[in-house]
């Protein structure tokens, strides 16, 4: 696995119409991915990579936006996830194109409205304070569990995933989201375990419904009928994987940045009303989901580069969010950026269902950390991404 690209002149490539860049968007590649984006925007905004069976990369904001709205050409099937999340099943509604997608989104959207998510803020704040209490008084503490556990606990309670199983959830998410790029068998075993877990949980909620998303879905209908067990399993699996990890990445990235920029941290501590704008900038510049995949349904051409039906295409949200044609000084993190039309949550029909919840979780997590520790720094170097330690040292 490489962490940086190598651009080549299209005329020297095996296929004269296939400009190449050795692009990866997982694991150690994230350490230098923003350098890749700068070079790709400048030299090869449409390029081919041989990773994960081969795919095209789109990095310009206009190209990514157009692809997100053209599902007749850029299909989410067989999966938006590259490599797979350990299952060959289509994850509902992630891996379904319109018009089949529409009834499932209509079913799920009421569970994630701004109004319902506002109702979770007090509990999110309570849990954040409890997690911070656990490391109170330590000269150096690891903020990674705070970043991960807060959204995991909030989402689990809301959806009806037993919070007491959090340790198991953590390991499964690690295996599915992070280990899959190195060992697919690990992800597949974890996915099988998660499906078994949800079979039992769905059966329990059928017998003993509660005030949670799973119980609500079991009582709801799609196109005049109840969801069957297979649909329920696929929806629960997607909610589990997406809801327990992506928001944690944004919280981590925000704390990582603030720990190295004391003036920005001081500004937020002095005026917490600025935190939501700062969170949007972290989403733009340090998005936890850098890219997702599509499959071409027909031959097409982008930027003068021909592509063939059946080939995979990766829409690189992280690069679109650093497009110099869309953002002023795109590689600078400006917490007071006034106009911020980022695509951290995607765009079009597949825009993230959980964006309302994610924003509230990130805002509360940053607010409570900064309220408790108005000044802090990195105790040792750490990456902005991933699941490793994020050691912070509170300052007087």
TrEMBL record:
Entry keyword annotation includes Iron: yes
Membrane-spanning intervals of the chain: none
Alphabetized GO MF terms: heme binding; iron ion binding; monooxygenase activity; oxidoreductase activity, acting on paired donors, with incorporation or reduction of molecular oxygen
Gene3D superfamilies: Cytochrome P450
Keyword Membrane carried by entry: no
This protein's UniProt keywords: Heme, Iron, Metal-binding, Monooxygenase, Oxidoreductase
Family classification: Belongs to the cytochrome P450 family.
Protein name: Unannotated protein
